[in-house]
Amino acid sequence: MELRTYGRRRVVGLRREEVAQLAGISVDYYVRLEQGRDHHPSPQILDALARALMLDPPSTLHLHRLGRLPADRPVPGSGSTDGVPEPVAPGLGILLETIGNVPAFVQDRFMTVLAANRLAIALSPRNAPGTNILREAFLDPAERDLYEDYDQVMREAVAGLRASVGERVDDPRVRRLVEDLSDRSAYFVHLWNRHDVRPKVAGRRLLHHPIVGDLDLFHEKLAVAGTDGQLLVVHHASPGSPSDGALRRLARTGPSVVA
């Protein structure tokens, strides 16, 4: 499809008129959607907008979730608006202790640590229970020193938060976190305004630990069934590798589990 031209372009990106044209809808209807004045767009309209904006599958799913929300919906998870985190199941705490030879912790959907084994805290003090790891990642300079690929970690973290909270973007806990970080970190504002959506997935990280040196670690993020978005996060090294030996050295002191 050949787009109509609308004069000189001041910024990169599609104009409203161009998005509407590519999606096959009127500009007036697109503006109503953008302003939240049409609360029941059809799946076909949402698919057309996703194609026009060239959204990837996670972002398309996020768009559909937002499009299904009723205008007068109650805030999901309103029972936790007092800021009290959801508890970790006793069996999960035992599991953290059992796998004490690898760093592991449990976080909620807002990226607050609920429980952690000692090795997770030895890997980074920001993994301690009660700590919001996203806030610390942006505000604690030690986090920038820890990660070899800090910028990639931050992009994934912010996109992961959007995917995790989904339609709960208006939840008071999300608002408080976003407002706090927006006031204190221009870098967070830049990444949040990108509106990237990426579910938290497994991967690999290169870390520069202040005690044991460089670490090449895999990380797994496993959904905890029966909870409100809790994830079990585990870091581990290839058996017999230098990083495996470094983790073993790091594991020789301190208590086993903190919750």
Summarize the structure in words.
There is one protein chain. The protein is of the alpha+beta class and 259 residues long. It folds into two domains: 16-67, no CATH class; 88-258, Beta-Lactamase (2-Layer Sandwich), CATH 3.30.450.180. The protein has helices at residues 16-23, 27-34, 43-52, 57-67, 90-98, 118-123, 133-139, 141-146, 150-165, 172-184, 186-192, 242-250, and strands spanning 104-107, 113-117, 203-209, 213-223, 231-236, 257-258. Strands 3-4-5-1-2-6 form a six-stranded antiparallel beta sheet. The longest helix has 16 residues, at 150-165.
Report strand order across the widest sheet.
Answer: 3-4-5-1-2-6
Main beta sheet strand tally, sense and closure: 6 strands, antiparallel
> What is the overall pLDDT average?
83
Number of E-state strands: 6
